[in-house]
Structures are given as structure tokens and as C-alpha cells.
Amino acid sequence: MGDRTYVLHGARLVAVLALWLAAATSAAGQPTDCTFYVRAGFVPLEGEADGRTPETAFASITVGARAVRNPGDVVCVGPGLYVDGDITPLQDGAPGVPELRDFPVTLRGDASGASTDDGPGPVRLVPPTDRPASETPGTGFLLVGRHDVVIEGFDISGFSDAGIQARAAGGGANSADLVIRNNTIRSCRTGIDIHAEGVIMIEHNVITGSSASGISVESCTEPAPFGFCSGLVGGLVVPIVSNNRSGGNGAHGVFLRLGDDAVVQNNVLYSNGLTGVRLRGVSDALIANNLVYRNGQEGVSIGTGFVDPGTSGDAADFASPNAIVLNNTLYENTEWAVEIGSSLAASPGAAVVNNIIWRNGSGRLGIGVLNERGGVTSVREPSVCSFVSGFNDVLDDYGPDTPRNNYDLRSDPRFVDITGPDGTLGGEVVEGQFIDRAADDDFRLRADSPALDAGSTTVTRLGITGSAAAGGAVDQGTVDLGYHYDASAEQVLFYETPFMPLFVRQSGDDTADGLTPPTAFASIRTAARRARAGVTVVVGPGVYRECDIHSPPDSGRAVFLADPAGAQTGDAPGVVLLRPDRAELPGRSDGLRRRQRVRCGDRRLPHHRRHRRWRPAAEPVRPRRGAQHRRVRQRQARHQRDQLRRRARRQQPRLRQWRRHPDRQRRAGSQRVRRRRFAAFDPGVQHRL
Description:
Blueprint: E1 4-8, E2 13-17, E3 36-38, H1 61-66, E4 74-77, E5 80-83, E6 105-109, E7 123-126, E8 139-144, E9 147-152, E10 155-157, E11 162-167, E12 175-181, E13 184-186, E14 190-203, E15 206-208, E16 215-219, E17 237-242, E18 245-247, E19 254-260, E20 263-265, E21 268-270, E22 277-283, E23 286-288, E24 291-293, E25 300-302, E26 324-326, E27 329-331, E28 338-340, E29 351-353, E30 356-358, E31 367-369, E32 388-390, E33 393-394, E34 415-417, E35 427-430, E36 433-436, E37 442-445, H2 459-462, E38 500-504, H3 524-529, E39 535-539, E40 542-544, E41 558-562, E42 576-578, H4 607-610, H5 625-651, H6 657-660, H7 663-668, H8 672-677
Parallel strand pairs: 3-4, 4-6, 5-7, 6-9, 7-10, 8-11, 9-12, 10-13, 11-14, 12-14, 13-15, 14-16, 14-17, 15-18, 16-19, 17-20, 18-21, 19-22, 20-23, 21-24, 22-25, 23-26, 24-27, 25-28, 26-29, 27-30, 28-31, 29-32, 30-33, 38-39, 39-41, 40-42
Antiparallel strand pairs: 1-2, 34-37, 35-36
């Protein structure tokens, strides 16, 4: 297997993962590099069991794992039933440097039996039932402070904790750089439960019937008192979750917490008690080409959740910015198909592109992006900030704050047969056990589906593999919407923000839709009011006399692009000139006289100034903060002084009013003598004249 490259957000994020088993198999696909051998219940005919050959194989997986002494050792386990648990190798693989990455420690279940000279069959691992509960292993494989380890090919069931679990050594190093693949895990508390750092690759596993989550991966960024993480603060985990089936679990299909650059792709996630995929505190994640249906809550939940009472969790840690939700099929989940953000932590910069969304929340809950700015707890940069959405087939409703544009479809995708011959969608619980009936659920698209060739870009440019169409024909040309069956875990995906234009031309019409050059708008301001969720306003050559141009607040990403060459609008080349000095008042569609025209931003001028003939003038220099505060204090002091003067005047007797107002002398008339008689007055007595 070669290098694996995922490109997110254009070319800004590249995660290159070197796979470790390039030389682990022969051209025929059979393992040839076994260091130790394990066979179920095997007893050597001669000599001691040293595990070096199939004839002297160990009988226990635990013994085989403890025999590992060097990086690059491989323990090959033959078919059969193994009553064992808490299996951990005592040796790490090679350090994670490029020249040594071909030497992990590998625990391999060989269901073909070729390596151990056994007949084919599953390599089953179950806990013992004849021991007290305190002595019974809680996990199938337990990696404590181990790094560069591969676990593959086992059928694990019945453990009270996790089928495969990674933790930190007590007071020591965290587990890191693990590969878990080709395992079947049933009826455990958690299928795969990882607290680690570094690259964690989980692929081609089947996890069903867990009482908690199917796949759970978290970082060890803080010390934990019960040994989940070491006493030393570790780095973020980079989860790569590909080509798994996770269904019928009590909580989440895939749960990722406190990670970075996560990739969740090509998975089938169904009939889980809570969500299909939940991200908490995971930035720059790619959720691509997953089939997510009939889960108990959201299909995809990004940056949501709550802080448990009595815990030290911080709600801000839930923020999962810059997530990309690409080419997924989300069907009949109980709540939102895609939910982004929470009232306590925003997840801005998300993109939802090329998805099929239908019958979620009884048809009411399609895409829900929260505008936390208007909530009880205001968030400075809400989840709607820089949000992009387009080229989705959405038959469900949008959230009240969710930005949307005219580049989404709203039509029946015409699936082949979602329930299959057994008539059951997903699975069902019978006598407390989950029965998986999802193998025949067919979400391929019929030949007349409007979702075929309806994507944002071409297959070659996106890099997606597999087929979304009935018959299994490989997708070619413009990419099909929704989930692609049989996509490769080795695919290289390049995401680019889709081009969703609104056109503006001088010959346009503001009553048109602006989606094509012949139906272009006439004013940039009209297009700006419709620029939501990633729309690009393309302005053709000409002079535009307008101002105050902006997209609606909290409406997602908007781009304004001048096209002086006329290549996009079909106009002759020329300058794209904006003349705000001759712009009309915003909000007025009738022709205004020149004396009523103002500069942009003058809408707050007093009425008597607004209608004056405008003359060009330099913008006033805004005073510095210190001078501005000093002037405010001076105004306040003058205001207080004026109030005191007015109060003192009101308290003075009316005897002296005629002296301040000579015109009152005539009105005083015959009473003037009387006023002089009271010239000497008591200031404390109110005189009535």
C-alpha cells in the first residue's frame, strides 16, 4: 500500500499517512512474515511450544503477544475459538519516523488458516465464563502505553468493556500510532475505544450490538485520574475512520473528541441509539462518502452536546470548526440530518456539499446550522459564519438560521430498494440482541435519478472512487450525489469550495434570478442580498452607481468577483467601475434628483442636511481614543453646569424677571411700584407677585 493523502479546504491542509504493511504480504495476498504462531488448543507432538513454527505454536494469544521482543514482529493466529482477554504486547513497534515505519508490532488473525496450516474459519476471541467477575478480562485487546501496533483479523464478542481498547500507562506514555482493521466486534460495551495521540487508523471493521458507541476515539490532552490518559499532557489524536460498518450500537456509530484533521469516510452507520457521527472539539474534519441512516438522533452532529453535571468539561471544547460534509447519504434519522453548532460553542466554516438528505426528523429536519449570536449565550463568531452549502438534494426543511441558496435540489433521489428483500431497514432488536439486517439495504440510484451527474465538480477533480448508480458502474464525468459503494480507503480527496455564481450585468434585470448570464441582475446590491452560503457574485464590465453593498448578516460565505474580461458574463471586455459618489440613496428605486444623492453611509444625517447639495469633502479624521474621551468628559461637565444654572434660576423669585426681559416692563404696568417695594426680600421665602 502506498502513501495516503487527504487534501481539505483547497490545498491548505494535507495529511499524509504512510501505511506500515507494504512488505507484510506477498503478491498472492498470503502472509509470509510471521514471527510467532498461535493455534487454538494446540499441543506440540514433540518438544516445547516456542511459537516459532506452526508445529511448535502457542495455544494462547496472550502467550504469543508476550513473546514479542522486537519491532516488526508478527504474531499469526490461526482459526478457532480462543478464551482469552486483556491481550497486550510487551514490546512497541518502531518509533514513528519515516525510515522505520515498516516495523510495527502486528497481532494478526488469519481466517484463511494458510499461515498456521489450519482450515479456514473465523479467529474468535471470547472472555472466560468460569471466573469471578473481578478476575474476568474486560477487554479483548488492551494496549497500555503502546505505540506502532497493528491489530487485524479477529472476531471479538462478549466483553464487558471494549473489544479493543487503548489507554495510557500509569504515569507513563500515552498510546499512539495504532492500526485496527478487518475485525468483527459484537456485543461488547464499546466496540473500539481509544484514548491516545498521534495517527489512529480504524478501517474495514464491523461493529454491531455494542451497548455504548461502536467506534470512540479521543485525545489525551489532560491527565485523567483513572488511567485513561497519562500524567503527561499528550498531543491531539488524528483519527482516520474508513470503510467500517457500525450499527445497532447503544450510543454513536462513530464518536470523535478532541482531535485534529480527522477523516471519516466510506462508512455505513445505521440503527445506532444516538448519532451516526458526532464530532466534539475536532477541527478541520472531513466527513465524506458515508451512508448514515435510521439513527436515534442526528445523522451527523458537529460541535454539539452538553457538559455533564459535576464534571470539569468545558463547553468551548465542543467547537469543531471547518468541517466538510461531502457526498453522504443521510436518510430517516430521527433528528437533524446534519446539525452544526451549539448554544455554548460555535463551529464556523463548515461546508455541506453533494449530499442526499431525505426523511430526517419526519421530513422537518434537514440541515440545521445554529446562529449562536442570537442565543442566550452570545458567541462572537457563530456557526453560520463562512458556512457553505450547495449541490445537495434536500427534501427536508432547513433550520431557521441556516443560510441557503438556489443551488440545492429538491427531488426524489429514486433509490433502488432501501429495505431490500427482507423488508427491514437497518436491523432490529430481538430478545435484547441486535439482529443485523442491513446487508440488503440498497441506496444506489436508479437510471432516472436527478442526483446522477448533479454534483459540484468532476470525479477526476474530486478524487472519489466507487459507484452511486444501480448496476455498479464506476462514477465518471460530473460526480453523482450521495454515497458511493465500494469506494477505496486509498482514495485521495481534493475538496474545493463549489462555484455557485450570481451574475450582474448592466443589461440585466433585478426581477430575474441571476443564475445565468442571460438572467443576470442589473445591480450588485440586488445580487448581494441573495449572496448566501458560498455564493459568488460575478460582476460584468460597466459602471455601477450604487453603494452600501453587502450580503445579509450571518448568512454564510459570500464572494464578490469582478469580471473585466467578460469571460463569465459574456460581455465585451471593459473596466468594472463602482461610483459611490453618484450613488442613489439605498432602498430607493425611483430616480432621485442630484440634490438628494448622498455619500455611502450618510443615511443618519439630519433631514435638513440630507437634502442639501452634496459637495466632495475629505473624510473627517477620527480622534484618538484619549482625545475622544476627553471631549466626552468636557461635554458632560458643560451639561452638568448648565443644569445647575437652570435649577438656580428656577429657584430665584420672579422679582427680577422684568430686569432680564425688558419687554415685560410694559406688561408689568401698574405693578412696577409694587415690585420695587419688595426689592429687599428674604431668599428663603417664595414671593408671589
